[in-house]
Amino acid sequence: MAVIEGAPTAPADRQRPSRWLLGVGLVIMLAGVLFGYDQGVIAGALHGIKADFDIGTTVTEIITSWVTLGALVGALVAGGLADRWGRRSTILSAAGLFTVGAVIEAFAPGPPVLVVGRLVVGFGVGVASVAAPLYAAEMAPARVRGRFVSLYQLAITMGILIAYVVDEALTNSDAWRVMLGVSAVPGILLAVAMFPMPDSPRWLLRNGRRDDAADALQKVEPGTDTEARLAEVQAAIDADRQQASWGELRSPSLRRPLQIGIGLAVFQQITGINAIIYYANEIFGAAGFSTPQEQAAATTWAIGVVNVLATFIAVGYVDRFGRKPLLRAGLIGMALSLTVVGIGFHLLDGQSGAKGGESPTAVMTLVGLVVFIASFAFSLGPVVWTVINEIFPSRVRGRAVAVATAANWGSAWLVSQFFLTITDAIGQAGTFLLFAAFSAIAFVWVTRTVPETKGRTLEEIEALWTEP
Ligand code: BGC
């Protein structure tokens, strides 16, 4: 996830979006789908990979989680690449890398090559996850810019769902190579969508290509006063020159927003979302869904579909109810449902032999997981990214968002890397109760630390940090 300027919304004019602007929307959506597909696909692929390669817990965890490690590195270097090569070339390269990684995965003769493929794919996802929203933020007129944050999150959840549907369609043949290889498709589509598009006016102008910048502006905002807009873009570039250094991130006035941004990014992950997204089929297996078909169906519907639908709640209500009420309500739902899931697993452990998709305890565990996903999807999923993108003063926003994003990928990696090890050590029940405890701590922390930012201008938000 990357920097989206939280620019104030200009009065909406009724003009229809140009086809170039639709192209920008398509690029951001495909980047989100690509991210989500890759998060989701491993859930269905693990079964076949384990059967083919006869691997233990540690290698399973590495194959699952190193995508996140690649993405962490990709996200950190993406800003530099996008400045040097331009947004367009960076996104094209990310799409290319992603496609190559998918092919490496699909033809991997053994676990080491598969892990290399996962790292390459992850790197591509990480670069695209920063460069595509950055490109969209620079291309879109102010009146639609803010919406791209929710559009991007929605696309991520759709990508996860598409991956689950593909996994489910292929469970019979257990074709894990096809499941992973199919991820080349969104990569290729992203390249095709990006190819005819111009680079962003901001990057073009900064590189002395004034005519190309004017042309790009005309394409996305036909009829706009190009000279006036170019002057605005130039002013923004000049302001950027006074960007804070990395060292300034340590200044006392930034301590609170940084604590909030990093805290939200970490809590979003250590409450367990990606353990469930990645290991959904194993979790449903442990919860009594015995065949791969039953597990895949439970994953598609209980996780994939619910995740997409509940994200719409946040898109619709985040500006009406505010960030904090959504976060707090979601965290209560998450803490309670994770406790139910923990108790469910505890009971299932005690009734060995009585497992089966139909048992009441299995159903209770399933309901718990559904409530958890829904609670996450209308709260921590999208709202964390909204808040991270609006709490930092503009001078440090790029860098501060990068730090929070890195904290998010880092904690996602920790959880997916050690989830199976932790469940081996303290059991499924203990692990979910631990996630429940983190949700409860997050609730108290959000209540005490996070201010409401709904309806405040960026300047008002900035002023919050200097209050005693
Ligand atoms: C998180 C991802 C997660 C996704 C699930 C996003 O907000 O950052 O890590 O996989 O939500 O929908």
Give short descriptive properties of this protein.
single chain; 468 residues; mainly alpha; 0% strand; disordered N terminus; binds beta-D-glucopyranose
The gist of it:
The protein has 468 residues and is mostly helical. The chain contains 19 helices and no strands. It is globular, with a radius of gyration of 22 Å.
Q: How is this fold's topology laid out?
A:
Blueprint: H1 19-53, H2 57-85, H3 87-107, H4 111-139, H5 142-145, H6 147-170, H7 176-181, H8 184-194, H9 201-206, H10 210-220, H11 226-241, H12 255-270, H13 273-286, H14 292-321, H15 323-350, H16 360-377, H17 380-390, H18 394-449, H19 458-464
Helix pairs in contact: 1-4, 1-6, 1-8, 1-13, 2-3, 2-4, 2-18, 3-4, 3-8, 6-14, 6-17, 10-11, 12-17, 12-18, 13-14, 13-18, 14-15, 14-16, 15-16, 15-17, 15-18
The structure holds beta-D-glucopyranose (BGC).
Beta-D-glucopyranose binds at residues 39, 153, 156-157, 160, 268, 273-274, 277, 307, 381, 412.
Q: Please, could you describe this protein's structure?
A:
The chain has 19 helices and no strands. 52% of the residues are buried. The radius of gyration is 22 Å and the shape is globular. It has 468 residues and is mainly α.
